[in-house]
Every structure is written in structure tokens, then in C-alpha cells.
Amino acid sequence: MSPAMATDGPALAERLLQQLERAGGGGLGSLEAAAALGLEHQQLVGAVKSLQALGEVIEAEQRSSKRWELTPEGKEIVQEGSHEARVFDSIPAEGLPQSELMKLPSGKVGFSKAMSNKWVRLDKNADGGPRIFRAVESVRDAVREKLQLVQQGEAESLEEKDRNELKKRKLLMEVIIKTYWIRKGSAFSTTVTKQETDLTPEMLASGSWRDLKFKAYNFEALGIMPESGHLHPLLKVRTQFRQIFLEMGFTEMPANNFIESSFWNFDALFQPQQHPARDQHDTFFLQDPAEATDFPMDYLKRVKKIHSQGGYGSQGYKYDWKLEEARKNILRTHTTAVSARMLYRLAQQEKFTPAKYFSIDRVFRNETLDATHLAEFHQIEGVVADYGLTLGDLMGTLREFFTKLGISQLRFKPAYNPYTEPSMEVFSYHQGLQKWVEVGNSGIFRPEMLLPMGLPEGVSVIAWGLSLERPTMIKYGINNIRELVGHKVNLQMVYDGPLCRLDV
């Protein structure tokens, strides 16, 4: 390869050194050197920096300069004329309907500028609607002339106000150019000698190190950053959920009581004692302490009555409600037990005030362990209490909530819950799986749950709950989960249950 064609690192550096030798002792600028060598300026800057790393071969002083350049729109105007001139030229002697003029490529901008220059006039009372006419015989396209001066390298001949006006119209931009002034260094040479970076045992044994040039150590250089931990995707999404709830005016509930009594976990929610969810195959029961003892007795009696006898317009479940079952301690199966406590506390206020609560915490289910299920997962719960809330309020709140999360495709399906009526399951469309996936459950709490607490009759409570793991996958998708965990993720992961494992 001839020197004129060489553009690789060492060859390019040598060409620059030879050009510097020809320039004499005064030095040369990097722009001029790049032009002389037929290179892009950035290529030459790379050669300058590689020579600087060799020591005192060259001296390079960085300089900055400003110049004016045309934007793509400015270049178009130099070729075609300004928008206002094009609009003027498009108007025939009999005028042009304003609606047709606005359809022209330069119509909107050009009409505004032409009106400002008093080149055209608008007749609003013309037959067939507003019509545009020429107001002068001919015009001078000063904008195009000024841009032509800039293109010819004579931007400084324009007045500052003209440059600022063109810049405001985004036809002109000020560019800062960083260049180098290059001089010979104390160790100047027209050839580049490769410097050694390692002192090897062979060099020491043979003594060859005495005749070699070594690259100087840079004691200021930063070392390689050590590998460190990263936030788990679920933690990132949990933080985002919490921020969304706070933005929507919710208050976080204290959800740190993993051990709960069956009363608050089931009975207070109007869930009958013979419900399958209370079976040992679904719920973890504690042996020590096996039972809770502290209950609000008046409230407990009302709950017992609504279960066994009915009341508040309900016939109840008509069974023999037992205190022994209500006292059993369990690992909570849902954070709705926390919501029940908060709503009871809200009902004890002297005057009811609307409230919005949320919680994000762990719940426990006696699941069969597999790739997508563990004995615990994270539940997200939102509760709104106010007068006259309807199913429409619930659907609107859910759409707002999921839209803030980045999930916009939602569907609602009727469902059954013991403590909500009506109830809805929430589905979102997963682009990766190309199907609708359930992301949560929702509903309006039953009067049999709310009225025994002491809440006023007109108060409704809308609520929804979802597993933190499922919307994480909906939101990020499999490819982004890969990026978040920094490993390969098994594509065969199952999405129809709470995600408990990432196969990496």
C-alpha cells in the first residue's frame, strides 16, 4: 500500500509526522493537515492522540473556533428559495383559496412569513371562502441571499440580528470546532517506533530491555471497574409501582405483619370458614403461637352475625361460625388482610373522610414448588374508599394505574371473589407471547364486609390486587429482562403464575 493510501494507525501517524516535517518549525493546524492528507478531521485527531501517547514526539495545543453552518432546511432554501417566496410565487393573479395554499409544502410557514412581510393579503369575504392575493408585484428573497452568503463562507458579513433571526428559524446553526495546533516535540522523528508495554522474563534474561523503548506508565489512569451487584428487576418495578401510587395520591399501608389471624385474613373479608382457601393445602398455619387473642370484640360479634345469621340486607352463609377457627394464626395469604385492618381503623373515625391506600409486600401460599411457583410472592394492592364509587371508577382507576406503568392494552373479565361484588379479572396483551395474560384481580368490596366495620352506608370501596412478578414480565418482556439481569434467560418460562425463578 502506498503512503498516500495508508490510513491505519502507525502508517497514518507517520504520514502526519512527515507532513509536520515539511511544514518546518512553525507547526501546522489539524484542519489544514487533514485537508492536505485527504483525511477526515477525526481520523487525523486520532493520529495526534496516538502520537501524544508516545511521549515528546509532538506537541499538540487544543484550540476551539466557531463557525456558522446551514441546517438541512437552510440548504433546501438555498436551492429552492424561502418558504415565503415559494408561497408568493405559487399565488396566481386571480388569487388562491387559503385551504389550497395551506396544502402546499411551504404553505403554513410561508403564509405566516409572507403576511408579516406584507407580500400577500387575505380576503375573508371572497366567494368560495377565504382567498389569498398578492399584495405587491414582485419580492426580493432576502432570506435566500443571506443563506447563500453563509454557504460561501461569508457569514461574518451578515449583521448579528440577521444571523440570530436565521438561527431562530432553524436555518442556521453555530458550530464549535475543536482543532489542534501541532509542533515538533523534543523527541521528534518521522518514523513511529512501537513501544513495549510489558517487561517479560525473556527481556530480563537476554538484557534486550536496555535497547527497547517502553510506554510510560499512566498512574492517573482508572483501573477496570470491578463487577458488582445489580438491582433485581422486581426491585426496580416495585420502586416504580410505589412511585405511581404516590403520584396518584395514595398512602402506603403498614404491611410488615406477615403473621395474621384467620379473623383478619378471612372472616373480616366475609370469606366463610369452610372456604377451600382455609384448607391446610393452601394456607400455612402456625404451631407456636397457634392462636391470636386480641380482637375488637364488638366488631367480632358483628362479623360472626353476618356470617351465621346475615344482616344489613344479606342472608349470610347460614353456618355455625366458630371463634376457634377465627383465632388460628397463619402466614397471610394476601395483603387484603392489611386493607381490612386499615378500613376498620378508618371506620372508627368520628367523621368519615375519603381515603386511598396501597401496599406492596410478601404473601404466602402453600403451593407445589416448580419453576414458576414458590411458597411466597409479592402482592400489590390498591384500595379507594369514598361515597358513591362505581365499577366505572374502578375501571378508570385501573386504566390510569396501568398506563403509568406502561401497560396500555387492558381487558376486564367478570369474576367471583367472596368479598367483592362485582368482581373483575384484569388482562393485558403480551407482545412477546402474542396473547392476553392475566395481571390482576379487582372488585368492589361487599356491604357484608364494610358495614360491620362501621363504615357509612353510602361509602363504597374499590380495590385491586396483583402479583408483582407478572406485570414485571408484561412491562419489560423477555428481551429487557435479559438486559436487566445481565444473563441469558430461559425462553420456556411460564407466564400463567407468579414468576419465582429466572433460569440463567
From TrEMBL:
EC category name: ligase
Annotated EC: 6.1.1.20
Residues of the Aminoacyl-transfer RNA synthetases class-II family profile domain: 236-498
This protein's GO CC annotations: cytosol; phenylalanine-tRNA ligase complex
Protein location: Cytoplasm
Keywords of this entry: Aminoacyl-tRNA synthetase, ATP-binding, Cytoplasm, Ligase, Magnesium, Metal-binding, Nucleotide-binding, Protein biosynthesis
Listed InterPro entries: aa-tRNA-synth_II, aa-tRNA-synth_II/BPL/LPL, Phe-tRNA-synth_IIc_asu, Phenylalanyl-tRNA_Synthase, PheRS_DBD1, PheRS_DBD2, PheRS_DBD3, WH_DNA-bd_sf
GO biological process: phenylalanyl-tRNA aminoacylation; protein heterotetramerization
4Fe-4S is among the record's keywords: no
Endoplasmic reticulum found in the keyword field: no
Pfam families: PheRS_DBD1 (PF18552), PheRS_DBD2 (PF18554), PheRS_DBD3 (PF18553), tRNA-synt_2d (PF01409)
Similarity comment: Belongs to the class-II aminoacyl-tRNA synthetase family. Phe-tRNA synthetase alpha subunit type 2 subfamily.
This protein's name: Phenylalanine--tRNA ligase alpha subunit
